[in-house]
Amino acid sequence: MSGSGSGSERIGIFGGTFDPIHVGHLIVAADLRHALTLDRVLFVPAGRPPHKAADLVSADGDRLAMLELALATEPKAEISTVDLERPGPSYTVDLLAILRAGFPVARLVFLMGEDSLRDLPTWRNPDEIARLADFGVAARPGVAFDPEAVYAQVPAARGRLSLVETVQLSISSSDIRRRVRQGAPIRHLVPCAVEDYIAERGLYR
Predict the structure, then answer these.
(1) Confidence band of 54 (pLDDT split at 50, 70, 90)
(2) What's this model's pTM, rounded to 2 decimal places?
(3) Domain chopping of the chain, boundaries
(4) Which of 39, 32, 34, 41 is nearest to 13 (CA)?
(5) Phi and psi dihedrals of 83, rounded to 5?
(6) pLDDT tens digits for 175-197?
(7) Binning pLDDT at 50, 70 and 90, where does residue 44 land?
């Protein structure tokens, strides 16, 4: 995590397991950065996702290396390893509290998909999450979404949510892992450097 952020700086926070990072992640992040006029986007690999068994997630070093390769040519994209460096489960509210302390005057915008927004009321301390950051939500083109159901359960989110129609590809990290296991090609689903890394390291076999 670099710098404390200026008062006018807008920082997108894009968390995920990134196992592996794929082009869908990159497209959504770029669309949200542009639409929300973010100064930079911090990609934050999850240390210990509470919804996933530890032995089902690739080593931190491999996920971090793939992120570095994928973001090498991405403008205004950076990596924060704060979640990899802290103990305990990776809860969003704890992550944002750490980032808020590191960037006390910047505007933090937590980037998420529409499905994640629907699930927000079930997350740990969702109102505190909404107090720590705004929300930049990747919405499906042509699909109406009424956030009132979210506001009813997470009142602090009202007025802090921006819905942005983004290009959304039908790609998931789990599908990519499955394709690798089956010997199917993943070219164009992940950056070339990430594809090469997966092959060289023998990941997902």
Answers:
(1) low
(2) 0.93
(3) 10-169
(4) 41
(5) -75, -30
(6) 999 999 999 999 999 999 999 99
(7) very high
Give the separation between CA 92 and CA 83, rounded to whole angstroms: 10
10-169: CATH number: 3.40.50.620
User: Above 70 in pLDDT, residue 130?
Assistant: yes
Q: Which of 88, 120, 86 is nearest to 101 (CA)?
A: 86
Beta sheet of 107-113, edge-to-edge order:
77-79, 40-45, 10-16, 107-113, 134-139, 161-165
Rounded percentage of the chain residues whose pLDDT exceeds 90: 84
Q: Three-state SS across the chain?
A: CCCCCCCCCEEEEEEECCCCCCHHHHHHHHHHHHHCCCCEEEEEECCCCCCCCHHHCCCHHHHHHHHHHHHCCCCCEEECCHHHHCCCCCCHHHHHHHHHHHCCCCEEEEEEEHHHHHHHHHCCCHHHHHHHCEEEEEECCCCCCCCHHHHHHCHHHCCCEEEEECCCCCCCHHHHHHHHHHCCCCECCECHHHHHHHHHHCCCC
Taking the CA atoms of residue 37, residue 129, residue 59 and residue 203 in that order, the dihedral angle to the nearest 10 degrees is -60
pLDDT at 142: 78
Q: Is the pLDDT of residue 88 over 90?
A: no
| Gap between the Cα atoms of 203 and 181, Å rounded | 9
Res 82 pLDDT > 80: yes
